[in-house]
Amino acid sequence: MSRRIVAADAFGHVAVAMGGVAAEREVSLKSGAAVVAALQAAGVQAEGVDWADDPVAVLASGRFDRIFNVVHGRGGEDGQLQALARAYGIPVTGSDVLASALAMDKWRTKLCWQGAGLPTPSWRMLESPADVQACAAEGIFPLMVKPALEGSSIGMSRVASADALLPAWELARQYDSPVFAERWIHGREYTVAVLDGEALPAIRLETPNAFYDYEAKYLLDSTRYHCPAGLDAGAEATLGALALAACAVIGVRGWGRVDFMQDDAGSFWLIEVNTVPGMTDHSLVPMAARAAGLDFGQLCWRILETTCSGH
Fold first, then answer.
1. Is 278 a catalytic residue?
2. Residues 231-248: what's their mean pLDDT?
3. pLDDT, tens digit (0-9, with 9 covering 90-100), for 144-167
4. Among residues 2, 19, 20, 24, which one is catalytic?
5. Backbone angles phi and psi of 45, in degrees to 5
6. CA angle 128-131-133, nearest 5°?
């Protein structure tokens, strides 16, 4: 658990890292603006820093005492920002270098979960057209085709037939990433935010789209969020414990969000973990925090506290 901070000046000068150069840049800028406003309203000396603008010079300047990281995707969520901050001795919110790099890679995350005996859907790597053809010949549909190194559902496709598999693979491989096809889980979708070692209330997601894609996450008003999620106490506890176990295997700390599917038999399946989740008006961690009694400003404060000694 992190050390609780009472006075805003104890945080010093805080750089809210946002933007960057990844595909999630625009979402990150929105997250960053919201965090800056919340921290400043709480009296914190917070300043937004676009991580695309020479981050080495930013850290080398010695102006900042800690970093609140909301750079989604590559460069911010994959260990690069964390390694740079460590080199300059500056505390940063969220997971360390190893956990960030692992969690950013959906394939290696699944390997870790599988090795630890945690439930995650079976998958097959698609490295070539021959792999795609072999996968199609198995006739196991639907599948979810994913680039392993992107977030916000970018480059992902739900594939219902063999004819659609090659186009989905070609789309996913545009993102300079390993690609895999994952068994589709029929059922309900949930997400669980984790804050400083505790699981927040689960959220059930409902979208008219084929799955909870980028459009459903950030653009559509028709996406529905259910929190409380409608689970009984036992299932809610099981889901929270599984989220904490999934984070522990990867080494996630500070905060994060774990995504699940629940199949028709009621079993939960781990899909991925996000170490720098969105903090926009459509984002899920603030929603779960509200259900736990924390407003957005209190959530930002709690996340920032995890950079202090005792974390």
1. yes
2. 97
3. 999 988 765 678 899 999 999 999
4. 24
5. -80, 85
6. 110
With tokens 């959220």, the residue in question is 203
Decide if 190 is catalytic: no
Which has the closest alpha carbon to 262: 288, 242, 246? 242
* Catalytic residue from among 218, 236, 253, 256: 218
* Phi/psi of residue 255, nearest 5 degrees: -160, 165
209 is catalytic: no
> What are the tokens at 48?
């937004």
Q: What is the pLDDT of residues 169-202, one digit of tens each?
A: 999 998 888 999 999 999 999 999 999 999 999 9
Q: How far apart are CA 73 and CA 78, in angstroms?
A: 7
Residue 259 CB: number of other CB atoms within 10 A? 20
Please identify which of the residues 20, 151, 256, 278 carries the catalytic annotation: 278
- Say how far apart CA 160 and CA 181 lie, in whole Å: 12
CA torsion angle for 240, 245, 248, 249 (degrees, to 10)?
-150
Q: Crossing angle for the helix pair 97-104 and 80-87, nearest 10 degrees?
A: 170
> pLDDT of 53-112, one tens digit each?
999 999 999 999 999 999 998 899 999 999 999 999 999 999 999 999 999 999 999 999
